[in-house]
Protein 1
Amino acid sequence: MINEKDITFICAGKIFFKHNLTFRCLRSIRRFFPNSKIILSTWDGEYHKKLSKYADEVIYNQEPENIGSTCLPECDWYPKENSYNRQQVLVSTALKVCNTKYVVKFRTDFIFKKNCFIKFYETFLDVLGCEASIFKQKVLIYSCGTINPKVTNLPLPHHPSDLFFFGLTEDINLIYDGRFISKDLANYYLNHNEYNPALFNHLYTPEQFLWLQLLDKLNITYKKPKNYFEINERIAQETLYLFSSNFIVLDQPHLGFKSKFDKKFKYKDKKTRFLTTKHFLDFYKYIFGSSEKLEHLCRYEKVFYDYNCSLTSISKHMKILFKYLGFPIEILVMIYYSLLTLFLKIRLLYNEIISYNKCSNDE
């Protein structure tokens, strides 16, 4: 069982003073993980006297040279700075002073709403096993930003999310080793007139480069894609195998925090490009085979998915109810019965979740 005292939260990024976002981020960690250590890694010039009140240690880093935009000038969201080197500086310097067994790589604009990711991580480790092919123990990542290589709409191979990491400190050290991406790779398509479907500037996205440079550093045998969008059956299968054998991919409700990315990742959207927890478990079964424990976990995941979808529906219905309070009683009655049905469904699903947890504890 993982003890909170053995965890350090590395909050890496600039200080979001608007709406006190970073202060709320730090306070949320302190509230839900009171025994854990917090390291804030930010930039020179971001000083504020209250930061040391919420963080155990504050590190001010010198910003690295700007290596260019992630996309070409003709792209709609140009210019957007390639943040790979900045991320390496922020996280690697914080890791040097991290002395706990586990570490969380967290953003300064994320806010925890509950303490649940440790429990889910332990549950998945119990079923899938701790062993990893690259890491000493499987690393937990966020499904938002982890691209499913089997999607039809521009599948990106070897693209794990870099928004959230949790694992052994020695494993996270392998990912954030302080090595930079070169200007040539970061500005590849600016200097090469080649087919480029997403109008990216870099040869690989920052997320891909983070993962690919690790595979290359450890001399892992795999077919490396020539660019960010090259995909075939072998590359897709190797992506899924390496992800399944090294990561645990969880959705936002499992992780317990809120962020601006929640709007991009619709939990109910079955057509999402991201590798959701359900997709991850399906691919895991396909690659490594099933077991009674795994089937049990898959059934639980379906209930948990339905439960959170129902909560989302209730929120939507409540907004409609308040919006149309002045409308005829028939419409309000329809909305009321829809809400009542959802509440009953949630109660049943919640009971199933409690039942699963009791069974797991008995085992």
Protein 2
Amino acid sequence: MEHPQRPFLSDQYGVSICWHGHILLMYAGTTGSEYSNHLYAFDSRTAGVVKVSTSGSCPSRRYKHESFIVDDCMYILGGGSFAPTESCMYINQLNLRSLVWQQVKVQNDTSTPRTAFSCCVDPGTLKVWVFGGFDVDNTRLQAFQNYDLTSNEWEVVQTVCSPDARAFHSMIYTQGSLYLMLGANGKRKFNDVWQYRIRSTPPMLQMLAAYAYLRLPCPAHQPAIPDEMRSLIESVRLTHKPTLSA
């Protein structure tokens, strides 16, 4: 790692950011005239910033892409040099232990290439949800898709109603739902919030049962647990750290 020059960090936009423990990872972006594919790390404990040296097949220079972290890997997808430069949403993975890049090989990739879109990960199902953005013709998109990290497949999400086509919006995931807000379509700026329920919020008794199960000693033989309850337990395990009472 090496210390970057301060102006290089301060004059970029369209950078992706995501947390890994106490480290904020910032990837790529543009100054308005040049695009980058550098990775920087901000340490919240020391307030220091360093440029991270990586190896392997580094993603191309880009901006307005998205990044997320699952386990010890950071994933980069989408974006471009203003408009998308690829034929699909190529996904690049950085192992945060070895700092080696590799491209995720997706069979029959049906993803829609896009820039300035929104992206969220559901830790319970390991599905990546993406909405909107704009394509190579600068057309705002209404395309709603998800990528399953387990099956390594893209899927088009069909809904009864949908937000208008837009870009430069935001989306978050919490408690089994996606919340999408704001953005613009080139002619109009939106001032709205949409909710998409991935799954219903589990009853409190089920949540208590999931926490209780995680506090049990690891059994020699796994008990028979319904798939829905097993998914809830895994979601709680990934997103919460129960505090053991004395």
Protein 3
Amino acid sequence: MKQTNLKYSCLIAVLYFGMNVNGQVTPQDTLPKEQKIEEVVMIGYGSQKKENVTGSIGLVSAKDLADKPNSNPLSSVQGKLAGVNITNVGTPGGSPRVDIRGVGSLTGNTVFIVDGMITTDISYLNPQDIESMSVLKDPSSLAIFGAQAANGAVLIKTKTGKGKPVFSLNSYIGFKKVTNIPKMVNSNQYIELYNEKLINDNGSSAGSLSRANFPADTNWYDEIFRTSIINANDFSAMGSLGKLNYYGSVGYLKDEGNLAAGSGINSGSGFGRFNAKLNLSYKVTDNITIGNNFSFSKMRTDISQNPLLTAFIAPPIFSPMNSATGNYQYFNGYNIANPRAQLDQFRSQKMRKDC
């Protein structure tokens, strides 16, 4: 760069993309040495610098996942990657559907490769344990992993220890509420519309309803929905001791779900997960490294029949419970199940362990 002699000392600031801002009092304008930012991505058969990769790869970092209170890591990626459509199933702990650049197969699933292990479900993973997530969005996934990756592939790398010891404690609590619930008619409106229909259909009011015979006024969505709590607590330790690198973590997540079943085997739609993870690596020589990657998870999923449709069509003139017998109220003359009874009586619990 051409040097310019200045009569007086002045402050010169140079700013342009890819280099630092440098300001100094000098009669000569000097530029700092260029500093390059390198980003490494996983490509299925190793890792490369991002600028050297020719395929289409989306990258999600640990920072993008850590601050999202979701039971499944995929839910935290929603809306962050172009060409990747993530559809949540709505149930706590459920595995979202992932479509990469459209649906490549009607029956196939997106393949997940977690630390080199192939799986089709990552609901057992704690989002706090993930270091990076690379999404292969072009035919390279099919070339590397075969027909099972026809709908794309997601490469996940979990955290490993390095540097000085770091201890982390993360805890959050949140509340979930169902929104955009359809506004339903009350009992007075239902009886008025029902009697009007009788007259229009039959020309008489024979068989009409009255509030004296049906004093109840039930909003069935209020009966099956509740405001629920989601809570997660995680503790991790990472670092190195000489040639030994370590990362260990334990975590527990509880998602109550928004379906409000009565007392019994489960709450209707809850989900709980306990995680433990230990990553160890020891550098024997410059060319030899041995290690261990251990993970354990235990999950509990509450299952119940979905009462949303019956809650939509159930008449508000009936009560959930029969006050005379103390049992569930059945709708005489209507071929409709009691949503409250459907939710309370038809439920089960599924346990799953992964290690």
